[in-house]
Every structure is written in structure tokens, then in C-alpha cells.
Amino acid sequence: MSNRLMKSAIVTGASSGIGEAYARLVASLGYDLIIIARRKDRLETIAAELEKEYDIAVSLMQRDLCNEKDISVVEEKIRSIENLSVLINNAGFGTLGLFADVDLGKSLRMINLHVTAPVRLVKAALPGMLARREGAIINVSSAAPFLPVSGNVMYNGTKSFLISFSESLEIEVKDAGIRVQALCPGFTRTGFHSVEEFKNVDFSTIPGFLWMSADKVVELSWKALGKRKVVFIPGVVTLLTCTIFNGLFRYLAGKRTAAKGTRQR
Questions:
Q1: Where are the alpha helices (DSSP H) in the chain?
Q2: Measured torsion, CA atoms of residues 220, 225, 230, 232, in degrees rounded to the nearest 10
Q3: 155 belongs to the catalytic site
Q4: pTM of this prediction?
Q5: Using CA atoms, how far apart are residues 93 and 106, in angstroms rounded to an integer?
């Protein structure tokens, strides 16, 4: 490699979708990479492709960030990196069903992955970033919290935390030259929905204009990061949907709750 002083980036959930798109973007910008996910074969393929295409070093960590021990291993890795400039907390999963019916273990794993892991990894990365007075942190949230619906309680709750956490953190660290973003994508063409949990859901019924590619989401996210847009909803359609229908969704949810309460009396 021509330059061993290059800055480094870490991307979690980097084996597909938005995480893979982030890995490819930051690699193209010349960052050395640490990519993290559960699927070692996919990480190995991505690492080989990126090292071949760009003059960078790519290392991989096969870890499950639902697991406390694996979170600790990644924390230690972060603390050992002297030139970590970018941390992208992307790893995530969804569930389907009413909160009362969803397995409690799944809900607790989601808290670990969407809340505990990002908090701990940010905490591990911040001392070095503050000392160098530069850095970027992207926490991948979702547009879902802006459109609260039944059957999405834990996903919306944990992703809402990432939005609030990022907003408040940015206020604390912006004067130290650190940029923070909560990315809130809508429907994105990734492997997120291609899992057992959603096997009975027909996503083809969702109009094409509501979908974006992972590459486009990441491209817009990176541009918005440079403009210090902390809570960023990519795509005009998704932004308008969240803005216009947020109040309507909450109003209808309130009406349904009130109606149920009246019937119960």
C-alpha cells in the first residue's frame, strides 16, 4: 500500500444492502476499512473486491452484535485504531407482529443491536475522534418512526432512540469537528426483507416510486453528512411522506385507541 497513514472506517452490517454500499463508498474515498457482519463468506468476497479495486486495506470481523461478547470484541478493536475517522452503525433487523406476540428474546436482541451496540461503539470511538478533532458517525435509523403503525413497536422504538441519540450527540461534539447523522431511509432495495420473518409479506404491492437503491441512499447520506444534516430522510418522496403523513398517522392511531377505550367501558 502506498500510504499507511490513511484514515480508517468501520461499517457494521456490511455484508449486504446499505452497509455494503457504505463500505464501497468509503473504500472509493481511500479509507482503510474494517467491515463487520455475521456472514463471513460475504465479508471475504467484499473485502477481496475492494482491496483489488482500491489501494486500501480491508479487514473483516465475523461478529453478531446482538451478542454482548461480540460487542465487547468490536469495542476493543475500535479502541486500538489510532486513525479511525468514520463509524457507521448499520447492523439491524426487523420483526413482524404485535408486541405482545413477538418473542421477548427477539425484542431484547433488537435492543442490543439497535441501541446497546451503537452506544457502546460510539463511546469507544469518541475519545480518539475528540483528541484528533475530526470524525464522522452515522447511525442508520429508519423512516418508520415517523409513521407509527401497529406491529412495529420495537423496531420503531429502537430506531427512534437512534434519532434522538444522534441529535443530542451532535450538539455535544460538533464544535470538536465531529459530524453525526441519523440516516432515516424508507423502502430500500436490500436483503433486509428477504428473511424468514417477512416470507409471507408481498412487498411487490408497494409502488416502485417508494423504493430507492442502497447505493443512492448512501450517496445522498454522505452528501448530507457534509452539509451537517443530522436527521436525514433520503429521497423527496420519502421525505414528503414522512412530513405530510406523520400527523395523520398519529391522529388515526389516537382515534383507534380512543375508540377501543370507549368500547371497553
A1: 17-28, 40-53, 68-80, 104-111, 117-132, 153-173, 214-226, 236-264
A2: 0
A3: yes
A4: 0.86
A5: 10
Query: What is the spatial distance between Cα 152 and Cα 204, in angstroms, rounded to a whole number?
Result: 20
- Which pLDDT band, with edges at 50, 70 and 90, does 240 fall under? confident
112-137 pLDDT, tens digit per residue, is 999 999 999 999 999 999 999 999 99
Q: Spelled out in words, what is the top-level CATH class assigned to the domain 8-264?
A: alpha beta
The residue from 22, 54, 155, 251 that is catalytic is 155
205-233 pLDDT, tens digit per residue, is 766 667 699 999 999 999 999 999 999 99
User: Which percentage of the chain shows pLDDT scores above 70?
Assistant: 83
Instruction: Work out the angle between the directed axes of helices 40-53 and 17-28 (0-180°, nearest 10).
Output: 20
Residue 202 CB-density burial (10 A; 0-12 exposed, 13-18 middle, 19+ buried): exposed
For residue 207, the SS3 value is coil
* Residue whose cell numbers read 471475504: 44
Task: Please measure the distance between the N-terminal and C-terminal CA atoms of the chain and give it in whole angstroms.
Answer: 72
